[in-house]
Amino acid sequence: MKLQPLPRILTLVMAGLVASAAQAQPADAFAVNVEVDASRTLGELKPIWRFFGADEPNYATMKDGRKLMKHLGDLRPGNVYFRAHNLLNTGDGTPAFKWGSTNAYTEDRDGKPVYDWTVNDRIIDSYLERGVRPYLQIGFMPQALSSAKPGTPYQHSWRPGFAYDLIAGGWNAPPKDYAKWAELVFQWTQHCVQRYGREEVLRWYFEVWNEPNGPAYWTGTQDEFNKLHDHAIDAVRRALPGARVGGPDVAGSGGAFMDAFLKHVVSGKNHATGQTGTPTDFLAFHAKGSPRFVDGRVRMNMSPQLGGIAKGFEKIAAVPELKNKPIVIGENDPEGCAACPGPQNAYRNGTMYSSYTAASYKRIWQLAERHQVNLEGALTWAFTFEDQPWFAGYRQLATNGVDLPVLNVFRMYAKLGPTQLRATSDAEVALDDIIANGVRGRPDVGVLATRAPDGKLAVMTWHYHDDDASGPDAAVSLKLAGLGRQATRAVTQWRVDKAHANAFTAWQAMGSPQAPDAKQYAQLEAASVMAPAALPALAVADGSATLSFTLPRQGVTLLVIE
């Protein structure tokens, strides 16, 4: 079968989709009234979205990883952070699913440490050269330091389809020697200061391990983890006084493990110093949703993710010494395994993922306000999987170097201003309703509005439902107030939906080729781009104006008003 005519077909299909989107609102569209008052502010809207991460650290130095890292850095240069597992693992740096290595620590025949920062430097260089800074995870355990039982394989052989608990290995054990563990962390931190400079490294985050409250990532006891944590934090601070340190990046809100950890860092005896408490500049836990495959389609579930965030906030807010500390939700996702396949995860390539992301982040901001906590970040655990099939269905931000629709939602967030404005939608599902029931009845057509220091207004709307099924468009009537005396305002629209900023639908229109040629690749790249559309100038009368537009199901729109 010849592929040459397909680009022409693709062009016609996409042109028809764009043209239909610009026509009058469909007859079966339902009405939605959105109001934004530019004169009423709600306070600061922190850019919590600027954190990302992945299991596989070595992808950051590969061709598609470098390209995607640049796209992340471009969102907000110097203020985007990346977290990766496996940065201290023993190995030759060859990546695999849920694995990576740097060979940072080995021992000679006499048991003396041998440090080699070559691979770690290459990874961190890749971040910094592209405007991204490390959220530096200290772990996992080098083979020479692992206390795993003799005969335990060091590297796991997990692959998609295997049971999740098969990721265990010698890498997740406590150290045989805590003094050597501390010296490793000290030497690494000292090296980073020497290579990158004190002022640069002071801007990083340092945290220890990942999800120590479960057997997949930690085979020791709670007290052994506290000891591991104390020695690592003390080592970082000895090498760099004032370094930003925290943790523990527990799975979920952490349960009794997190309660004990919070008590330990406040009033427990420090295993490294013998003093009371452990320096803590930020606290971190994880939150995941739970999609299922129901009646032949994906059904998302934001409820456990938001409920877990609420519990995590409650735990931290209940400790007087910690309630004002910055919080990073160190993994914040629709479900728990980026590399795991399955029909319930078929939301990832298209607009289900992007609309879920838009709908969930507003609720996270709302929960932070409700619990009066200092939320600094909500980290998306998604990057890319190098040299895998096109649109393979992993939780990622790009496939083979082509951005997926979800990444464009983060580009929308990057265009928001720092001041949140009062905005309401009569079709927005209430926070408590989503926590209790998800979005199973009427769709969630929500709104978020901001103002920038230069006066630009940004109005973001989304049309989300838990069920990955077709449905009528939303006919949105946007009423703007508090615009001042200016007679007209320029309006730019950015869209992510089935017809816009969507390489997945373009690839499907090509016939889903697994080996696109150079021309097709260029077309897929072009289809992934979120292009601005200039709308007719907004006429302002008495400080008010109205604007109408169609918002397709699973669509996200950003209006920037000059």
Question: Concise description?
Answer:
The protein is of the alpha/beta class. The protein is about 30% helix and about 25% strand.
Task: Considering the chains and any ligands shown, give keywords for the structure.
8-stranded parallel sheet; 13 helices; Immunoglobulin-like; disordered N terminus; globular; 9-stranded mixed sheet; single chain
Explain what you see:
The structure is a single chain. The protein has 562 residues and is of the alpha/beta class. It folds into two domains: 6-44 and 417-561, Immunoglobulin-like; 135-414, Alpha-Beta Barrel (TIM Barrel). It has helices at 6-22, 63-75, 118-128, 178-196, 198-201, 222-239, 255-267, 303-317, 351-371, 405-414, 431-437, 503-509, 518-528; strands at residues 30-44, 51-54, 80-84, 105-107, 113-115, 132-138, 205-208, 244-250, 282-288, 292-294, 297-299, 326-333, 374-378, 398-399, 402-403, 419-425, 444-451, 457-464, 474-481, 488-496, 533-539, 545-551, 556-561. It is globular and about 80 Å long. Mean pLDDT is 94; it is low at 1-25.
Kindly report the oligomeric state of this protein: single chain
Report the CATH superfamily of the largest domain. Glycosidases
Q: What is the strand tally?
A: 23
Q: What is the top-level CATH class of the largest domain? A: Alpha Beta
- Helical percentage: 25-40%
Return the average pLDDT rounded to an integer.
94
| Count of the domains | 2
CATH topology of the largest domain, which one?
TIM Barrel
Poorly predicted spans: 1-25
* Strand order in space, largest sheet: 21-20-23-18-17-16-1-19-22
Strand content: 15-25%
The chain-level structural class is: alpha/beta
Shape label: globular
The end-to-end distance, rounded to whole angstroms, is: 50 Å
Radius of gyration: 24 Å
The CATH architecture name of the largest domain reads Alpha-Beta Barrel
Q: Characterize the largest beta sheet: strand count, sense, and whether it forms a barrel.
A: 9 strands, mixed
| Number of H/I helices | 13
GO molecular function, one term: xylan 1,4-beta-xylosidase activity
EC number: 3.2.1.37
Keywords: Glycosidase, Hydrolase, Signal
Pfam families: Glyco_hydro_39
